[in-house]
Amino acid sequence: MLSRRLTLAALVPLALPVPLHPRLARAQAVATAPTDQAEIARIEAYLNGLRTLKAHFVQVAPNGALSQGTAWLDRPGRMRFQYAPPSPLLLVAGHGLVVFHDAALDQTSNIPLGMTPLGILLADHILLTGRVTVTALNRLPGEIELTLVRTARPTQGSLTLVFTDNPLTLRQWTVVDAQGQRTTVTLTNIELGGTFDQSLFEYVAVPHGQGGSG
Questions:
Q1: Burial of 28 (0-12, 13-18, 19+ CB in 10 A)
Q2: CA gap 170, 161 in Å, rounded
Q3: pTM of the full predicted structure?
Q4: CATH label of the domain that carries residue 61
Q5: Which of 2, 37, 76, 175 is paired with 66 by a 20 to 30 Å CA distance?
Q6: CA separation for the pair 129, 171 (Å, rounded)
Q7: Which domain holds residue 168?
Q8: Average pLDDT, consecutive stretches of 10 residues, N- to C-terminus, the chain (214 residues)
Q9: Nearest Cα to 121, choosing from 46, 184, 59?
């Protein structure tokens, strides 16, 4: 049960129904110099050019627990996280929903894609303005970190994307929920482009102890 709650925490914090004071109802964008604005535009263009991706992932839960597996991304709107054994977890995004299944508990949760951080990454056209606000842009040696919130619900959580530079490549994201719980997903062995069997993005329960293709 704990692993299920922690994995869901990586998905839903930007959608939790936390009441907001009117003065806190909108996010404060980071003050950007022209060079920062150009960097944000470059990241936005990169994300919009990222149509399909397959990668190995390692997830670090708020309690430090590690899990791993294979991730597929097929924009717009489709993703699969196939957790490797002994994890009983499976996450499938498609048809406007994120389906999360725990085979060990035989429990399935359905969450509207647009109410999760994944909805930002899987949109048909990604805009880092308007409904999404950039609240931080940090440059590290060889890396760029960009933190985003839902503009109308900034206290409900944040999504930080980490890119390696030259060439710009998405390598990691961290979700921080309204309680400050942090979940990080790191991608390795990234393969871009190509087409995937669309059955990957249809939910089919996987019996506990059986992993998916990877």
A1: exposed
A2: 7
A3: 0.80
A4: 2.50.20.10
A5: 76
A6: 22
A7: 2-16+26-193
A8: 50 37 49 79 95 96 92 95 92 93 90 82 91 92 92 82 94 88 94 93 64 44
A9: 46
